[in-house]
TrEMBL record:
Gene3D superfamilies: 3.40.50.2300
GO terms for MF: protein tyrosine phosphatase activity
Protein name per UniProt: protein-tyrosine-phosphatase
Key word rRNA processing present: no
Keyword Hydrolase included in the entry's annotation: yes
Domain Phosphotyrosine protein phosphatase I: 1-133
Species annotation: Roseateles depolymerans
Family matches, as Pfam families: LMWPc
Enzyme class, broadest EC rank: hydrolase
Keywords: Hydrolase, Protein phosphatase
Family of the protein in this entry: Belongs to the low molecular weight phosphotyrosine protein phosphatase family.
EC id: 3.1.3.48
InterPro entries: LMW_PTPase, Ptyr_pPase, Ptyr_pPase_sf, Tyr_phospatase_low_mol_wt
Catalytic residues in the record: D107
Amino acid sequence: MAEAVLRDHATRLGLTQVASAGVWASSRRQEADKRALQALHARSYGLDRRWRSRRVRPEDFDEFDLLLAMDREVLRGLESVRPARSPAHLALFLQGMTGLGRDEVPDPYFGTAEGFERVLDLIEARTQAWPAPAALMRHFTSD
């Protein structure tokens, strides 16, 4: 879901590449959850129906400047597979966001369709609150 929203805002955010991958994603390259697709479609976000999940690859840490994790467990997973000397920055997706009452995005997979709507609300709030392109990387790399 975050990939679809970020792709929609890529130009405004100064992003040249947007991709999503999981630390523990199945090697079977599964389709997006139908509830996620319904939530995205209801808000006019597109996600190619050919989209399939994939695992984070070592080359992702060279190809992308910033890898964002939805929760701390995923962040720890990224840190554990990050190649030595990788230039990539790792951060929580909601890092620096105030007023949400949380700093992690919950996994809606085992819940209801409403859970996917709530997650999409968080993704949209985070994406709309990001700073101008010149400050985006600084936002995630400052301590």
